[in-house]
Predict the 3D structure of the following.
Amino acid sequence: MHKHDLVIIGGGGAGLTAALAAKKTSYDASVTLITKDPLSYSPCALPFVISGEIDGFDSISKGIEDICRNSNINCLIDEAVSIDVKRRVVETRTGEFHYTSLIIATGGIPATPPIKGVDLEKVYTLYRMEDARRIMQAAEQAESAVVIGGGAIGLEAAAALIESGLKVALIEGLDYVLYRALDPDFSQAVENKFKENGVELIKGQNVEEITGEAKVESVKVAGREFPADLVIVVTGVRPNVKLAEKAGIGILNGGIKTDEYMETSVKGIYAAGDCAITKSLITGKPMPGLLGTIAIRQGTVAGMNAVGERETFENVLGSMILKVYDMEVGRTGLTEREAKAEGMEVVTGKVKSTTTAEYYPKGKGIEVKLIFNARDKRIVGAQAIGGGGVAGKINLLTFAISRKATVDDLIKLEYCYTPPLAPSHNPIVLAAENAYRKMKRLKERAKSGSGC
């Protein structure tokens, strides 16, 4: 048995980031990374390889052993099978590794619903590189496809298959696509974009059955039957907690419970990435992260703390962006629906603007929506959709929410302007002014209704 200061299980975004952060913090520490996958890559890139926008899998992947070697990290391509918390040992298929501290970064598992026929040939999930390879091979021989799930990956997968020349139906069991990310007014624009590009959209209906003898032939939903030479099921991801649970490490809401230092219920053991449960920065309620950016932040904190630091992880807002066709879609914080469910007095500010001065010939449209709690005037959520500039606005608004900014703060925002790059009236400020006027009217109505 070999003694290692820090052992990390999992070489995805959280695990590899943790290893690199640990070495940067304490270069003399012995760090060992145990991973089943010999390649480091971002799963978010997979739909764009399928569509052909990214040229092949080699463009998105690097050998994890090379990365580790360059940073003096021990790398073992192996599978961890158990953790003995009393002996402080990780057992793999090939040996045992003693640790002083441990980071669990076992990622997630596709949450496949129990649909009849889901095990048929040519029915795929889209979470790993081998999934994308199989989908690309199947698409070459296919004419039609069905995508089940209208979240970000489902939308990107549907767009990729349309780009590949297939006839595509997209099925979402909830009332509209991106249900947990957007409000209906912004989701509608996304749905319209897909319809314009030939995707048939079925909402508010669950799949009854995937039919076929040996391989898939069709998908039954809402009394209709959609022909399918291949099916992609992307109905979410659940934390992979099998190892942690077996070791007696605390689980909360289906994920590994962590504190602000990313430490689990067992001292010296940390967790990061899709396997860990975190908290909403606004409500304080437990929630899974399930985003690459969150995995990287958690991995950094866990890696530093596992070798002696005491860094804290600020809770999350679920900031995300995606691009479908020529449309950028971004969001952060609570949706209007979620804010109301939290009992907030919700006021929104919304504006349609442009990415450049309105008279500049290459400008694109952009729409921004800000969500405020009228009781303290703080911003609690934001959504943006348009032809460009969405990521920068969502990043700024994420910072604004995390710093507890109010509608007054956003109205006073100083910004830059030049006709080819940005309009003279910033859409964030305009949306904040729109919300401020609504708040003022609410206040006036409350006063006049009070009899004073």
Remarks:
- Residues 320-446 form a domain with the FAD/NAD(P)-binding domain fold (CATH 3.50.50.60).
